[in-house]
Amino acid sequence: MNPKQRRELEDALEALPKRERDRLFDEARRQRSDAQKRRRTKARETVDGERVGGKSRPDPLIDWVLRLLAEERKRAHTPETAHHDTPQTLTEGLVVALTRRWAEILPDASSDPDAPSPAPPVPVGCRLSADLAARQQSDIAVGDRAVFTPDTDGDPEVVRVLPRRTALSRPDPRDPRTERVVAANIDAVVIVVSVVSPPLHPRLIDRYLVAIEHGGAHPIIAVNKADLLSPEDLARELTKLDPYRAAGIPVAVCRANPQTGKKDVTALRTLLADTTCALVGHSGVGKSSLANALHPALGLEVGELREQDQRGRHTTTASSMHRIPAQDGQSGFRVIDTPGVRYFGLADITPDELRWMFPEFVDLLWQCKFTDCTHDHEPDCAVKAAVQGGRIPAVRHQTYLRLLEELRTGKPPGEITERIRPPRE
Ligand code: GDP
Ligand code: ZN
C-alpha cells in the first residue's frame, strides 16, 4: 500500500468503535503469528540443520491490522453486503468450482473431506450477483469460503465472501495493477518443473516463489520426468535445486509418465497430506499428468488433447477443486486446478515487501545493523555475511537483488514480469 492509502486506513482505524478495533487487532495477531510459525518451521529446516529464527524481528502488528482493514473495507463496498439484514438463514461453505456467473459451493456440513457420509456431499450451484461476477477474478476464487442464500425463490445467490487466509494471484494482463486471484486459502503451491523437455531453469522457480510468498502459502518444488534421465544425470540436474533445499523448500522427485505408466509420486503425496494445494508451472512440465498420477480418477486431459481444446473451444476457463482421497495409508488432500494460470508476476509488490518474500533472509533480518536493511549497499548486513559464509546460496541473493532493482526502477509490473508461456507460443 502507498503512503496515502496507509494514512487513510490509519484514520479509518482510529474512527472505529473500540470493540471493532480490538477485533481487528486480535485477528491480525492471529494471522501474524500463523505467518511467523510458518516462517520459523521453514527456517528450522534450513541452514545445515542449525536452528535459526525464533527471535523477534520487526514485523509490526499495525501493518497486519491495516492490511486486514483494507481487505474488509474492500468487501464492505460490495453491494452484496446489503443483504446483511435480511432475515434469511444463510449457509456457509467452500467454493469448489467457479465459472463466470456461477459458483459451486459445498455447504459446511458436508465439506469435511473425511466425514463418513453415506451419500456423497453435493455442491450447491449459486448465482454470482452481477457485481461479484464483474470482479469475479479478484473477489471470489476456488477455495474461498462464502455465504449464500437458500433457494426459496429462484436460485441461491452468493452474498458474501469471507476473508482469505492465503491466496495465489497474478497480475491482470490487461491491467497489471490489479490482481487476479486464481486460488484461495491454499496451504501449499507445488511448482512443477521437469528435468528435461522442457529443461530445468531455476530462474523461473524464483518468479513463482516470490508470487507464492506474496500470497502466504508455502512452496513445494516437484521435479517431474525423472524417468527420462539416467540416475547419474538426474543427480547432476538435481544439484541445481540445492539452493532451494537450503532455503527450506521441500523438493519431491516424481515420475508421472502417462504413456509408460511409470509413476512415482509418493514423496509428493507425503508432502501434500491434509493440505489444499495448487499445481503451477510451465506448460508441458506434466502438471496434469502428475495430478492424474496422484489420483487416476481425476482424468485430466494431458498434452496434445488439451491443447486442441484450448485453441478450439476455450473450455478451460473454469477452475475447480478436486479431492484426492487417502491412499496406501497416506492422508488425502485437495488440489485446486487452475488452467487459467498462464504466468505469474510480481503484482504490486513494493521493494520493501520483497524483503519479506525470501524466507531465509527474513530470519536473519534482526541481525542486520539497520532494521530496514535491503541487504544491498548497507554495512553490517547479516544476509550478505551469510552469503559470504556460504550459508545462503549466492544465486538466491543475486535473484533478490535483480528483482529489487526491477522494482526500484519503477517499471510497471507487466513489464518486469517474465511471461511464462508455453514454449510453442
Ligand atoms: P502440463 O501442461 O504441465 O499439464 O503437462 P502434461 O501433463 O500435459 O504433460 C506434458 C507432456 O509430458 C505429455 O506428453 C506427457 O505425456 C509428458 N509427461 C508428463 N509427465 C511425464 C513423466 O513423468 N515422464 C515422461 N517421460 N513424460 C511425462
Ligand atoms: Zn541486511
Characterization of the model:
The chain is of the alpha/beta class. It is built from 16 helices and 15 strands. It has helices spanning 3-15, 18-44, 61-76, 130-134, 136-139, 202-215, 231-238, 242-246, 266-272, 287-294, 304-312, 351-354, 359-362, 382-388, 394-408, 413-416; strands at residues 91-98, 102-107, 124-127, 145-148, 158-161, 167-171, 179-184, 188-194, 218-224, 251-253, 255-256, 263-264, 276-280, 319-324, 333-337. The strands form 3 sheets. Strands 1, 2, 3, 4, 5, 8, 9, 10, 13, 14 and 15 form an 11-stranded mixed beta sheet that branches. Strands 6-7 form a two-stranded antiparallel ribbon. It starts with a helix and ends in a 9-residue tail after the last helix.
Helicity, as a percent range: 25-40%
Number of beta strands: 15
Which ligands appear in the coordinates? guanosine-5'-diphosphate, zinc ion
Characterize the largest beta sheet: strand count, sense, and whether it forms a barrel: 11 strands, mixed
What is the average per-residue confidence, as pLDDT, rounded to a whole number? 78
- Rg over alpha carbons: 22 Å
Structural class: alpha/beta
- Residue fraction in strands: 15-25%
Uncertain runs are 45-56, 81-85, 305-317, 340-347, 412-425
List the total number of helices.
16
First-to-last CA distance: 35 Å
Inertia-based shape:
flat
What would the keywords be for this entry?
single chain, 425 residues, alpha/beta, eleven-stranded mixed β-sheet, two-stranded antiparallel sheet, disordered C terminus, binds guanosine-5'-diphosphate, binds zinc ion
